[in-house]
Each structure stands twice: as C-alpha cells, then as structure tokens.
Design a protein that fits this description.
34 helices, 0% strand, mainly alpha, disordered N terminus
C-alpha cells in the first residue's frame, strides 16, 4: 500500500470544479473503475474516488471515502478531508486533518493550514506552515508566505513572490510586475545627474522585467496584467498587440481594458466599435468610458445623451464628468450652469476646470474673481492657466508679475508663452536667451516666433551685395528659412522679408510672389516693395496701383513715389496732392523731401 502518497488534491487550484451539465462518459468510466477498486479495499482508489466526488459536490459520498482512506494513512485523503470539512463549516476539525497531512509531508495541506492560522490571526503559526509548504515548492504556499511577509514589511517577501511566480502563480507574477513598475517610476522621478547612465540602464531593465512578468501573468489569464501589458505596448506604438491584450482583458470583465480598447479603435477610425466597448465599460462603472461616450454624442450634436453620460461619469466618481458638463453648457451659452459644473470640478481639484472657470469669469468682466482660480490651476500644474495668468498681469501693465508665469508655461512647452518670454528677453537685450525661447516657440508652430527668430539671426548675418553676373545664387540662410516658415503661415512681415532676401539674391520672380502675397493680405510694405519691383521691371502703371494701395494704408514713401510719378507725367495737381499726403505721413526724411517737391510743384503751377 502506498501510504501518505499525494493523489488528486483540491487545494492546488483554490477552487472546486462544478459538476458539468452532461457527464463525460470517460470520467464516468474512470469513476466506476475507482469505485470497484475502493470497494475491494484499494486505499489509493478510495482517496482518488473521494476527491472526484468532492469535486462533483457529493460531500456525503466523498466524506466516507476520504475518512476510510485517511484511516489507512493516505495524506492526500487527509488533506482533502480537511477541504471537505472546511466547506461544511468545521474549520477546527479541518485544521486537525490538515495538520495530519502536513506533518506527513503534504505541501498542499501545509498551505491550507497556514492560511487557516492566518485567518485566525496567529501569524507565527501561519508563517511556520506556509514556509513548510513553500520550501517544498508549492506555488500557493510560496505566494501566501510572500503575502504574509510583505504585509509585515519583511525583505524576504520578494524572494518567495518570485518563487511562486516562477512556478506559474499568475497573481504573484502580476504583483512582481507592479512592484518593478513602481520602482522604475520612482527612479525616473528622481533628479538624475548628467552621467547617470547606469541608473538609466537600471530603470530600463526594471521596466523590461516588469513587462515580462505582466506577459507571463496575462498569458495565464490575469486580466489586470493583460491591461497593463496592453498599456505598455500601446505606449511603445505596438498597437495591434496592445489591442489583442486589451481585448483579452475586456472579455474577462476588466472595464478599464474595454475603455482603452475603445480609444484604440477610435484612433483607428472605427468609432462604432469604440462606442460598443465604451458602453460595456461605462455600464461596468468606468467613468472614463462614460466621458468618452459623452464626448462622442456631443460631437454628433446629441447633447442630451452626452449630458446623460457625463452625469454617469460623475456618478462613477470621475470628476472629468463635471468638467465636461461645464464645457457642454459653455458651448450652448448656458453660462450659469457652466459656472456651476466648473466650480464642482474645480473644488474637487480639477485644475483645467479651475482654469476654465477663471476664463469664464474673465469673459464676464470679473477679473478679480478670475485671478485666484487661475492661480489655483497654475499652482496645480495647469500650463494654460499659467499662461493665462501671465496675460492677466500683462493686461494690467504688470510685466514683472506676468513674466514668471510665462516662464513657467514656457518651461512646460507652451508655444505662446515661449514667444512672450522670447520677446521680453529681446527687449531686455538678452539675445541668447531670447533665441532659445524663440526657437522653442517657432518649433511649436508659432509664426510670430519664427519671424522674430529670423530677425535675431538676420541681425547677425554679414551684409552681402547682389550676385555678380554669372555667379550662382547663394544658398538660403537659416534666418531666411525661419522667415519662410512664418511666411508660409501667412505672416505678412515675414513675407515681405522673404521677398527682400529673394530680391537681394536677384530672384525677382520669387520676390514678386512674396511681395504680392503680403500686399494682397493688407501689408502696405509689401505693396510698396511690389511697386518698386514692378517699376524696375518696366511695369510702372501696375506699380502705381500698388503704391496707391500702400499710400492709402498710410505708407509715406509710397505717397512720395506717386507724387514723383505724377510730376514726371506732368500731372502737377495730382503730384502735389500726393506730395502733401507724403508730408503728413512721414517719416521725417520723407516729409522733408515731399515738402520740397510740393513747393516746386506749386511754383510750377503758379508760373
């Protein structure tokens, strides 16, 4: 007789198999075989039959078999008898049988006994039996021991958590991954020295190991591990695989994964499928998904449905719901309701709601009421609020108070704030810092910053004359490239500068194109320069048209050119009229020349 041998032990999985709707013929035949052997006195058959009946829920039939096998010294039967008695509510008697099996060497029974003592608050006894189980290689025992040690802050917890994970325990693998994630996040948050490559390698190594453990747990059906693995892959741009893990997790009931899958599908252009997963997640209480549904219906103009989902988000504890309701009301012109929802979100700590509330108050003329909300939002990290606070102080001509807020927003990547800091540095004469900020703003798409950066670089450029005959045109300088970037975005002064630089290279066609674009957009300098270019090319009548447009917009030199043009044509009255206009428009040298011309024309008229 094989005494105290491990057979089928139920506590290996932690749950009991429910009876199937249809009985498997093979399982029935196996049970019959074990029953006949048990009736013939086979202890092994009694133990196995007892475990089969216990799995099926036949506690009475199982108990008689397990007690009979236990009486013959079968430790697996003793363990399973403990399970049966625990199910029936006889915890102390169950512990007694687990002790018998554990003393005989059953790792599963030692685990069960350790769990029993921990539930009773006897941690020393729990640790003893769990350690017995873990040292025999029992995955559940190692996990339970690690959990106990971690609860006490014992450094040895990690060793046993890893041992459990390496033996296939998915929750252990997930917890190791989470610990590695937290460790790498903390290391990333620490200020690094310039040459701390070893620390960077450590962070990457921890992140890579965390991914491996997430993958191991997810492969075993751990839905939260699948969610985190999907997030890692999505961040890395591996969207197809990320979607697969999100889908696995969502099918297992993880609402956050369903929500994330919805966003992936939306970004891929499949809005209808995204809405299906958002609906599933929202119905499971995910506030983010409810907000996404609200935004989707708001885009479609279905404001009532959008409002319902935003309220559902609030009910789920997501403060974004109140903020989005505020945005919805503000778009509809319901200012009082927008104020109410913004305040609700702002008081809950939503920084963008605080910024939006401040903007709303400022638009209503309450600058004093807006300022503290801008400050609260900016101190909480809202980049837009920091910029808006700078604008508020600048509107009061308090540049000293505005600049620090612009600098804070610029440091966080705010394009317009970087422009404001750059132009302020130019006024102060700090060209180097001005260039740094202007490059940031121009790189962020600001046409005005690109123009000012061009002027900074242009001022350093050595003067160059027109190319000699037969000499190849010079390549474009960096300043011209920045001017062009601004010009292509419709910046009129930049368009004029690009035209001037092109003309300086002898590229008349390119110069005319940029001057014309600027002039048609309303630039009087563009119109004047286009007139000069046309006049040199022999198109004086068209030049006069552009000079007229420039002079009507207040360009003194254009008025003087017209006065000279009409004087040459013998149209003295018209020439005198434009000369008078040039005198009024200036600048001083133009006014002086125009006055002399006007006097000469007057003498000619009265002669």
């Amino acid at each position: 007789m094989d005494v105290m041998g491990d057979k089928a032990t139920l506590l290996e999985t932690g749950r009991f198999v429910q009876p199937a709707d249809r009985e498997d013929p093979g399982a029935a035949a196996e049970e019959l075989r074990h029953r006949l052997a048990a009736e013939a006195g086979d202890v092994d058959a009694m133990s196995v039959l007892g475990s089969l009946l216990l799995r099926r829920g036949d506690l009475d039939g199982a108990e008689s078999m397990l007690r009979a096998a236990t009486a013959e010294g079968d430790r697996a039967a003793a363990n399973n008898l403990g399970v049966l008695l625990h199910q029936r509510g006889y915890a102390d008697e169950a512990a007694g049988w687990w002790r018998v099996a554990a003393v005989a060497g059953s790792a599963a029974a030692a685990h069960a006994l350790g769990r029993h003592h921990r539930e009773r608050g006897d941690e020393p006894a729990a640790e003893y039996w769990l350690r017995q189980s873990a040292e025999q290689g029992h995955a559940l025992g190692a996990y339970a021991l690690a959990d106990l040690l971690e609860h006490r802050g014992d450094a040895g917890a990690e060793r046993w958590m890893r041992a459990s994970a390496e033996r296939g325990h998915r929750e252990a693998a997930y917890r190791i991954a989470r610990a590695l994630d937290r460790r790498s996040a903390a290391e990333r948050a620490e200020p690094a020295e310039p040459a701390e490559s070893a620390q960077d390698d450590g962070v990457r190594s921890a992140a890579a190991e965390a991914e491996q453990w997430y993958r191991q747990a997810a492969a075993r059906g751990h839905r939260r591990a699948a969610l985190h693995l999907g997030a890692i892959l999505e961040q890395r741009g591996e969207l197809k695989e990320a979607g697969r893990w999100y889908l696995n997790s969502a099918k297992d009931g993880e609402a956050r994964a369903a929500c994330a899958l919805g966003f992936l599908l939306r970004d891929a252009g499949d809005t209808e499928s995204a809405a299906v997963w958002w609906l599933k997640a929202a119905q499971d209480g995910d506030g983010n998904a409810a907000n996404a549904l609200g935004a989707l219906h708001a885009e479609r103009g279905e404001t009532q449905t959008a409002e319902r989902w935003y309220r559902a988000a609030m009910d789920a504890g997501d403060v974004n719901g109140a903020y989005n309701l505020g945005l919805l009301c503000a778009e509809q012109g319901r200012t009082a309701q927008a104020d109410q929802w913004y305040r609700r979100a702002a008081y809950a700590g939503h920084r963008e709601a605080a910024n939006a509330l401040a903007v709303l108050l400022l638009q209503g003329g309450d600058a004093a009421g807006a300022e503290p909300w801008f400050s609260k939002a900016a101190e909480a990290g809202s980049v837009d609020a920091a910029f808006n606070l700078g604008i508020l102080y600048a509107s009061r001509d308090d540049e000293g108070a505005a600049l620090p807020w612009y600098e804070r927003a610029a440091a966080a990547g705010h394009t317009e704030a970087a422009l404001q800091v750059g132009t302020a540095r130019l006024r102060e004469g700090d060209e180097q810092d001005a260039e740094r900020h202007l490059r940031c703003a121009a790189g962020g798409g600001s046409a005005e910053a690109a123009y000012w950066l061009g002027t900074v670089l242009d001022a350093r450029r050595p003067l160059a004359g027109p190319p000699a005959l037969g000499e190849p045109a010079a390549e474009k300088t960096e300043c011209e490239e920045w001017y062009e970037r601004a010009a292509e975005q419709g910046h009129r002064r930049a368009q004029v500068r690009v035209g001037m630089l092109a003309a300086g290279r002898g590229d008349v066609v390119e110069a005319a194109r940029w001057y014309r674009l600027a002039a048609e957009a309303g630039s009087r300098n563009g119109a004047f320069n286009l007139g000069l270019l046309l006049a040199r090319e022999g198109s004086e009548p068209e030049a006069a048209l552009w000079w007229t447009r420039a002079a009507d917009a207040g360009h003194g030199r254009a008025a003087l050119r017209l006065a000279l043009l009409y004087a040459r044509r013998g149209q003295l009255v018209e020439g005198q009229r434009w000369a008078s206009r040039a005198v009024d428009l200036g600048p001083a040298e133009v006014s002086e020349r125009a006055a002399r011309l006007r006097e000469a024309l007057q003498q000619e008229l009265t002669a």
